[in-house]
Design brief:
The protein is of the alpha+beta class. The protein is 43% helix and 10% strand. The chain is built from 16 helices and 9 strands. The strands form 3 sheets. A 4-stranded antiparallel beta sheet has the order 1-2-3-4. Strands 5-6-7 form a 3-stranded antiparallel beta sheet. A two-stranded antiparallel ribbon has the order 8-9. Helix 2 (64-79) runs parallel beside helix 7 and helix 8 (216-225) crosses helix 16. Residues 83-97 and 421-425 have low confidence and may be disordered.
């Protein structure tokens, strides 16, 4: 097994004998004929104890990087149950197109989808909205109308349940990404598709940017109602205090809680975030107190949030705890002759961002919009941000979170000092 490079492949000469070079970075095999004039990429596997091979393409028409991606995708599909015809048996790449949607989606997730932060959401959407209807069908047989029907069915189900139906847009986006990959050079070797049959599908629902955030009164109700969330109470409060994304907090593992940078205090080190870059969140003492004890530079990939029922808390199980907290808050607001608008966990990020704009000293804002963006882990689109500025702004973020968490401590103390509200059953 050797390391292949474009430079080395281009320089390979004929030896008078056939050469087979296995790539150490992928399942790829480079076959060079005796004269050195024909250089072909293959991927190999075993079926029923016999070796099989599949032709990917010839160099330099097929570049090394593309060949590696195709080989990895092909082997991933084989591991997920695909049984393609090998070129040795007289088959062609076109025969791969007979694979089912389930097998193709598994190959997509193995190569592309599982790299995303919200891969669990993708698998959940597949199990709920895709697999029951078309999972067993041949991918190549499905048309635009078949895929559109999945999205419209999702929309109708959501509207019937009293929702706006924006979840259908999420499904449409997932299907577009999956089918774009299936028709790309990376996925085509597994799927046999040459064009995306779903191209041109637009969003089902026009989405309006949310403006919801929790004011001081609502935050008091939030803190007093939080016990209704049960084992989710601590992660929900940590979401508010860190302004992080739901997937980042509920997906915490023990090795992400750190204190190994001299003078920086304790912090969360998130290696895999939405923008693909690692992220550091300074921990205020009140935020750190929400985490289990005994953490800090522990090199373990075990989850932080253990469930009393075994395993770990799941991001997919948030709906009921959020609903219980909301109902308790609405009941308390009704006792004050007020109506409380629904809120989501993502609105806690908006709450923190909005409140940070309220801290002034000598008529000067104490937290700049730039630092707010760094706390939200948004990508700086400027040339400076994209190519030059690699600073983490730890102390600036720590200062902002100290202001915010100190204010939350005051609100929480006031809330818990008042007469306890009667929580929803």
């Amino acid at each position: 097994m050797e390391k292949l490079t474009d430079r080395r492949i281009a320089g390979l000469k004929g030896t008078g004998a056939r050469q087979e070079i296995k790539d150490e970075q992928s399942p790829l095999v480079l076959v060079v004929n005796s004269a050195g004039t024909d250089k072909v990429f293959q991927v190999r596997w075993k079926k029923d104890g016999k070796s099989r091979r599949h032709l990917l393409g010839s160099y330099p028409d097929l570049k090394l990087a593309d060949a590696r991606e195709q080989a990895s995708a092909f082997k991933a599909a084989v591991r997920k149950g695909m049984s393609p015809q090998s070129s040795r048996e007289g088959g062609t790449a076109d025969q791969v197109g007979a694979i089912t949607v389930s097998v193709a989606f598994a190959a997509y997730m193995a190569q592309e989808g599982d790299k995303k932060v919200r891969s669990q959401d993708r698998w959940r959407a597949f199990a709920l909205d895709i697999e029951p209807t078309v999972g067993a069908k041949a991918l190549a047989d499905l048309t635009f109308a078949d895929w559109e029907e999945l999205v419209l069915r999702k929309y109708q189900r959501l509207v019937k349940a009293g929702h706006r139906g924006t979840g259908a847009n999420r499904l449409q986006a997932l299907l577009s990404a999956f089918l774009n990959w299936s028709a790309s050079p990376k996925g085509r070797v597994c799927t046999g598709l040459t064009t995306n049959p779903f191209r041109g599908m637009s969003k089902v629902v026009d989405e309006i940017a949310r403006e919801r955030w929790l004011n001081r009164y609502e935050l008091k109700l939030f803190f007093r109602s939080l016990p209704e969330a049960g084992e989710f109470a601590a992660p929900f409060e940590l979401l508010l205090r860190t302004m992080a994304r739901r997937s980042e907090i509920l997906g915490l593992t023990k090795n992400m809680v750190r204190s190994d940078l001299g003078g920086f205090g304790e912090y969360l080190r998130l290696p895999n975030t939405k923008n693909g870059k690692p992220f550091i969140i300074p921990l205020h003492p009140s935020a750190r107190a929400l985490l289990p004890s005994g953490l800090g530079n522990v090199e373990s990939r075990e989850g932080v949030w253990s469930s009393p029922r075994g395993g770990y808390l799941s991001m997919d199980a948030c709906s009921n705890p959020v609903g219980r907290v909301r109902r308790a808050m609405q009941k308390a607001a009704a006792a004050d002759d007020l109506q409380l608008e629904d809120w989501s966990l993502h609105d806690l990020r908006r709450t923190g961002t909005t409140m940070l704009g309220m801290f002034y000293k000598d008529r000067q804002a104490q937290v700049s919009p730039f630092i707010k963006d760094r706390l939200l882990n948004h990508v700086d689109p400027s040339v400076r941000g994209r190519h030059y500025d690699q600073y983490a702004y730890f102390f600036d973020k720590e200062h902002a979170l100290t202001l915010f968490n100190d204010e939350l401590d005051r609100i929480k103390a006031e809330a818990l000092a008042e007469l306890p509200i009667k929580l929803a059953a």
